[in-house]
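A note on notation is needed here, since sequence and fold are reported together in a single record. The reader may check this reading against the record printed directly beneath this paragraph.
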Amino acid sequence: MIAVDHLQKSFGRQLALDDVSFAVPKGEVFGFVGPNGAGKTTTIRILATLSAPDGGDATVGGVPVSENPAEVRALIGYMPDFFGVYDRLTSGEYLEFYAACHGVPRRRRARVAQELLELVDLTDRRDVAVDTLSRGMKQRLGLARALVHDPQVLLLDEPASGLDPRARVEMKELIRELRRMGKTILISSHILPELEELCTWVGFIDGGKMAAAGPMEEVRDRVTIGRRLRIELAQPSDEETERVSALLRDHPGVLSVRPLPDHLEVAVNDEVEDEQLLSALVEKKVRVRSFSQVAGDLSEAFMRLTEDHRT
């Protein structure tokens, strides 16, 4: 649904995007991950037809962004990381105004506004001035604004920025509902935990370069070296930790052992059976308090990918 091919973009001497490529299939939620200044917003602004690339191509629904911007705008709903409001408008008037901007017939505007206010749980704020809304309510209203023309694709730039924990939960539930409605969603963020539960696809960008992109599990597997185990010792003295680390390193299939303050983190290949490794430790009179697998996460994947990318 979204295809980005070899995008280049500079601002003066500053290279913002350097050969950026990725794709987002229809109906997926794509997490666009990277630190501040990585190139996320620049990419999204190109997709939203608000900025032209210096090189490369981008399409939305098969429509070239640079060649047919009006057609692309009919396909997308864009929610920037910061947006202004019209202080004297009520929430209902605000949505009706943007519905008019998108060519929604006059007879349907009030109904569209009402349906969207119900979707974002702001029906009781329909006649309330926009400037009196809380930050979280304004974010939800901004998402409703992006939906007034029923777009197929949503581009959300830091949608949870500045929200309190309750508002973040509400925003995540909204995004889940939009996916159930069949929307293709691209979400940019540098806050990884909030994306982990939402996204089905992910792309990592750093310094204007893509480090990886693809289905969430596939990208995680790409950076995972074997499996990781967490082993907590019952008697974690320095001497015992050193002894057990040496035993583990000598065990066939163990790739690495990293002593941490309260446990050992052990990487093993797929041929190692956890039960056999634990039995081997017990035979050597190692007292183990806990033995468990460690699941990978986006934070770990991002750190490893960007580290590899910079070298």
Remarks:
- Residues 124 and 229 are 50 Å apart (CA to CA).
- The mean pLDDT is 89.
- The two ends are 32 Å apart (CA to CA).
- The longest strand covers residues 14-24.
